[in-house]
Design a protein that fits this description.
The protein is α/β, with parallel strands linked by helices. It has 2 domains: 211 residues, NAD(P)-binding Rossmann-like Domain (Rossmann fold), CATH 3.40.50.720; 86 residues, Alpha-Beta Complex (UDP-galactose 4-epimerase, domain 1), CATH 3.90.25.10. It is built from 11 helices and 13 strands. It has a 7-stranded parallel sheet, sandwiched between helices. The longest helix has 22 residues. The protein binds uridine-diphosphate-N-acetylglucosamine.
């Protein structure tokens, strides 16, 4: 097989940087494009350090159609993985048009150019499309629920835009990967999550509390109908998650798709409560975390975890890293950021 080129939009971000590493190590040429609206060059530099080489980096905004056309003219792109999007749930409620404009337009631009070139497209979707569900674990056939936020709605809408595009335009194939809760960092501690300001997500808040950047973690809700009263999630290691992308891109590039548009859950299949995650973090890293119970956070679902069977059968992928490895990596990354 000749070497294939993959464009990673948002390749300097948390998920994009880990995917870039795994793709390159699997033998793909990767072109990173990012507008650095929500990250700096830390992860890009970390990627180059892990791989021992400089990767092409294009500073651009995917809302700029001419820039997208130029990019596709310059590189022989076989597949695109689209991460470049805004992702703060709360901000999306306050500024819906900012989210709809950016997240939809950038994807439409990519699809518009990809259809002319005959290019495979992988969309980074989210378990958020399942909403509050009582069928657990969720399979890809579980119904989607109306989104709780404009951010969540952009995920649902982009899935539909991809589905309709592959139906209408010969030459475009698409896969949507529905991520559960990606956490952790690369084992090298050279790339990881870099939230701006106060983190919204659980694990960055935990590691920032442990390092002393935050005084106390609030656990949102202890009266949920779950075994210990806290929410349950499917926390998926970021390196495992990145490897699912390599399997999906290979499936597209080697014409192994069974349908023009396919959807896969990317999760472990293992529910873990917020409290269980905190306990595991304390134990594996041998420390005590300052935390307290706080009221429920509006918009949170009680419990969600994946049935990852389809990904295992069709992509030959399954999560391998233990929660202990993942939480140790998250802590090593936070310590490295703090220079400890
Ligand atoms: C959130 C988004 C989801 C997005 C994902 C990206 C919502 C409703 N969903 O998922 O769309 O794809 O992030 O990673 O926002 N928690 C605390 N204290 C904290 C932070 C979180 O107790 O300081 C709890 C939450 O209540 C939740 C769990 O930890 O029960 C996980 O929260 P989080 O990491 O924010 O992820 P999700 O809300 O599941």
């Amino acid at each position: 097989m000749s070497k294939k080129t993959v464009l990673v939009s948002g390749g300097a971000g948390f998920i994009g940087s880990h995917v870039t590493v795994e793709l390159t190590q699997a033998g793909y040429d990767v072109v990173i494009a990012d507008n650095f609206s929500n990250c700096d060059e830390t992860n890009y530099k970390g990627v180059c350090a892990i791989l021992g080489k400089e990767l092409p980096l294009i500073r651009m905004d995917f809302c700029d159609k001419a820039a997208v056309e130029d990019l596709f003219a310059k590189y022989p792109i076989d597949a695109v993985i689209h991460f470049a999007a805004f992702k703060a749930v709360g901000e999306s409620v306050d500024e819906p048009l900012k989210y709809y404009r950016n997240n939809l337009l950038s994807f439409i631009n990519i699809l518009d150019v990809a259809r002319q070139k005959g290019c495979n497209v992988l969309f980074s979707s989210s378990a958020t499309v399942y909403g509050q569900t009582d069928q657990l674990p969720v399979t890809e056939k579980s119904p989607r629920q109306p989104a709780e936020s404009p951010y969540g709605n952009t995920k649902t809408m982009c899935e539909d835009i991809l589905r309709d595009s592959v139906k209408a335009y010969p030459g475009v194939r698409g896969i949507a990967l529905r991520y559960f809760n990606p956490i952790g960092a690369h084992p090298s501690a050279l790339i990881g999550e870099l939230p701006r300001g106060v983190p919204n997500n659980l694990v960055p808040f935990i590691t920032q509390t442990a390092i002393g950047k935050r005084a106390c973690l609030s656990v949102f809700g202890n009266d949920y109908p779950t075994p210990d009263g806290t929410c349950q999630r499917d926390f998926i290691d970021i390196v495992d998650l990145a490897k699912a992308h390599v399997c999906a891109v290979t499936r597209m590039c080697e014409n192994k798709m069974k349908q023009e548009y396919e959807i896969f859950n990317v999760g472990t299949g293992r529910p873990l409560s917020v409290l269980e995650l905190i306990n595991a973090f304390e134990k594996v890293n041998n420390l005590k975390l300052n935390w307290k119970y706080a009221p429920r956070r509006p918009g949170d679902v009680v419990a969600i975890w994946a049935d990852p069977t389809l990904a295992e059968q069709e992509l030959g992928w399954k999560a391998e890293r233990s929660i202990e490895e993942t939480l140790a990596a998250a802590w090593a990354w936070e310590k490295r950021l703090a220079g400890k």
